[in-house]
Specification:
The structure holds 2 protein chains of 2 kinds.
Chain A lengths: L8 H4 L16 H21 L4 H18 L7 H33 L6 H16 L2 H12 L3 H25 L3 H9 L4 H37 L5 H10 L3 H29 L1
Helix pairs in contact in A: 3-11, 4-5, 4-7, 4-9, 4-10, 5-7, 6-7, 7-9, 8-9, 9-10, 9-11, 10-11
Chain B lengths: L1 E9 L8 E9 L3 E5 L6 H8 L7 E6 L2 E2 L5 H8 L2 E4 L11 H6 L8 H6 L4 H13 L15 H14 L4 E5 L7 H17 L4 E4 L3 H7 L2 E6 L2 E6 L6 H7 L9 H5 L13 H13 L1
Parallel strand pairs in B: 3-8, 3-9, 6-7, 7-8
Antiparallel strand pairs in B: 1-2, 1-4, 4-5, 9-10
Helix pairs in contact in B: 5-6, 6-7, 8-11
Classes of the chains: A mainly alpha, B alpha/beta.
Chain lengths: ~280, ~280
């Protein structure tokens, strides 16, 4: 018997080579080629309908340059305005995070379909969907109309924002728990609340802590944005400085926002990596 | 103690019923093994007893209490007297061994005691005594997730005993364990059945272990009882009837856990075989 080279094992025995190709995601070649072509065509058409005015673009560039020129150097002199604005923003963020987390737990329980009957599960899901439907700025506009200008509208806005986001992810965490623990607790004769205490909450706790830190971080950011539409905090101060063409003051605020976000990001990143 | 199951039927969806008019009576102490291939209805049968699964029809009576007629608080109260241990242990992974053990008392304590972990002194004493019995007293403050499989199952057994049950249900308690540890758990269950006088119903797919450690074997196939007798009565013909003539000697559980390999006899030599396996694992 003759030794065979490994690569031609089949051929040497008179069998044809095997043929293998990675299966295509779209088996229909018309779909496979038509889809990217259609996508490109739409993009070109969309650009052509935007009627970009190049004159305005060219006029805008020097204007932008003038604004940035006026903004430099940043003006930190009105520190009492800056401090009171940031304090208010941070208070809004902290309060809204606490309220949002508190409300998100029962809503997440309602929305988790593995522990709730179907009707209630859809009720919980509904609350989360509504809370997540609108960007915080839109929610802030509604709350400013409802309760007036000021930080209270900001707190309400970010509470809704927090409970939507945390509620959704917490509900998903509950749906992913190990059901065996739930089964074991039911077998001991424990009722619903005790099953939650022993088999559900310990399993979602790490996720809950991680989400809380993330949400506080995210609320700090958003508290500056909702201030722009009058919901209190540093965003309002920033908007006023723009209106009065105090670009150097505005730049000071923007730089401080960046600094605060960087610090909070660093802290929350450290905390979350410490958890896992 | 008497457990009496009459005409129990359960089907999932529109398919073939998993349990089909099943009748079974278990009384006194000792271990009753339920054997049968996967999908024969063993797990469903156990879970219909404590109503973790709701049977379609039929009755289950424990000491003249009709479990199948109970609801809400009465059902939870009845569950306290039925201990259960599981194939995948089902421990509360993020909690300590002691919290897991005390969880066996959840049906007895109130909400405040449960949430603050302030259990009655008698419960704590009992927990320590039982943990000493299974040699786990040094692990009280260890997280359950850090235990080995055999240690977890021993905590699972202690949790079930904390309920002061009048019967113990064991759903494939050794299927996730290596051969040596699984024999230790079987011996523990034998001790419990013998010394504590607690009847144990155990689902098991290891025929040798069933023969060695149990007093009565019930063979299930397609939701019917095909065999009911002592380990000595379980001959090849009976096994063929239970396992549909398939090779019942090829134990899937052993294969999964890597097995001890080597000699696995058929027939009545199961006990010796198991012992030999244990020796092999030690060597």
């Amino acid at each position: 018997m003759q030794a065979q080279a490994p690569g031609s094992a089949g051929a040497a025995q008179g069998r044809p080579d095997y043929r293998w190709k990675r299966p295509q995601f779209f088996t229909n070649p018309y779909v496979r080629w038509g889809l990217p072509v259609a996508g490109l065509a739409y993009l070109l058409w969309a650009i052509s309908t935007l009627s970009i005015n190049w004159n305005r673009v060219s006029a805008g560039i020097p204007r932008a340059g003038r604004i940035f020129g006026n903004a430099w150097p940043p003006d930190f002199s009105r520190s009492n305005l800056i401090i009171s604005g940031f304090t208010e923003s941070i208070q809004i963020a902290l309060l809204a995070t606490a309220l949002g987390l508190l409300i998100s737990v029962p809503i997440a329980l309602l929305a988790a379909k593995n522990i709730m009957p179907r009707g209630l599960h859809w009720f919980g899901r509904g609350i989360i969907i509504v809370a997540r439907s609108f960007h915080p700025v839109i929610v802030a506009i509604i709350f400013v109309k409802a309760v007036g200008l000021g930080p209270f509208a900001g707190v309400l806005t970010l509470t809704v924002y927090s409970l939507g986001f945390v509620g959704k992810l917490l509900a998903e965490a509950i749906e992913e728990i190990d059901e065996g623990q739930v089964e074991a607790m039911r077998a001991t004769g424990a009722g619903f609340i005790k099953v939650l205490l022993y088999a559900v909450f310990p399993q979602i706790l790490p996720r809950q802590v991680g989400l809380s830190i993330y949400q506080l971080d995210s609320n700090l950011r958003a508290s500056a944005v909702v201030g722009v539409v009058g919901a209190g905090g540093i965003g309002g101060t920033l908007m006023n400085s723009f209106r009065r063409f105090d670009y150097d003051f505005a730049l000071a605020i923007l730089l401080l926002i960046i600094a605060i976000i960087l610090v909070s990001e660093a802290i929350s990143g450290r905390l979350r990596s410490g958890l896992s | 103690m008497e457990l009496n199951i009459e005409n129990l039927t359960k089907s999932y969806g529109r398919g073939q019923p998993v349990l089909n008019g099943l009748n079974l009576t278990v009384d006194g102490s000792g271990i009753t093994a339920i054997i049968g291939s996967s999908g024969a209805g063993k797990s469903t049968l156990l879970r219909c007893i404590n109503r973790l699964i709701e049977p379609d029809s039929g009755t289950v009576r424990l000491n003249d209490v009709e479990l199948t007629a109970l609801k809400g608080a009465a059902l939870r109260k009845a569950r306290r007297s039925i201990g259960m241990i599981f194939q995948s242990f089902n421990l509360l992974d993020r909690l300590t061994v002691m919290e897991n053990v005390l969880a066996g008392r959840l049906g007895y304590v109130n909400f405040w005691q449960a949430s603050s972990r302030r259990y009655p002194q008698a419960d704590i004493n009992r927990a320590y005594e039982l943990l000493e019995l299974v040699g786990m007293e040094e692990f009280v403050n260890q997280r359950a997730s850090r235990l080995s499989g055999g240690q977890r199952q021993r905590v699972g057994v202690v949790r079930a005993l904390m309920q002061q049950p009048s019967i113990l249900l064991a759903d494939e308690p050794t299927a996730s364990l290596d051969p040596r540890t699984s024999l230790q758990i079987m011996e523990l269950l034998q001790d419990i059945a013998g010394n504590l006088g607690l009847p144990v119903i155990i689902n098991i797919h290891n025929v040798d272990q069933a023969r060695t450690y149990t007093d009565r074997i019930v063979g299930l196939r397609y939701g019917h009882i095909m065999f009911d007798g002592t380990p000595a009565d379980l001959d090849d013909a009976a096994l063929d009837a239970i396992y549909d003539g398939k090779d019942w000697n090829e134990d899937p559980g052993e294969a999964e856990s890597g097995g001890a390999g080597g000699s696995r006899g058929s027939g009545g030599a199961g006990g010796k075989d198991a012992k030999r396996e244990l020796e092999g694992a030690r060597a």
